[in-house]
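SUBJECT: A protein chain and its fold
Encoding: whole-number codes for local backbone shapes
Chain under study, with its fold:
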Amino acid sequence: MILQGSLSFSLGEDAFTVPLHCVEEVVRAAWPVPVARAPFGCLGLLDLRGQTLPMLDTAALFALRRPLRPQANPEALLGRQLVVISLPPLRAALLVDRVLDVSGATREEDRQGLGAGSGAQPVAVDLPALLGGSRGRLLLKVTPLAAAALERGA
């Protein structure tokens, strides 16, 4: 089912959708600054116009593949996008392969690039379940501490 007012994106051959009211913007993927003892799925931190955001490896969080190591393989980020989401008090950047559609329904020409495993409709992502609880608390703790390291240029 596609949510009314949603953003659909691909991860490999699979398609997912998040509520549009949680999406702030979509930007090109960039290299994150690594964070010591980051929670699983956190690739590091980004400075997005002066605000520090955790960058999350969405495919790893969904158990679609092993976590990326951008420092070891920076080419892995080429051509990918970040969906900046807000789920107060947390803001984060979700690494996705490609944004497919905004609002209504996924366009047929975008769907053709998806494999048979993607099904007829994108899978709705439960952002509170994904980013809430202990993961959300850890991300909130690590972000301000690492923001100081970003300012120092570490």
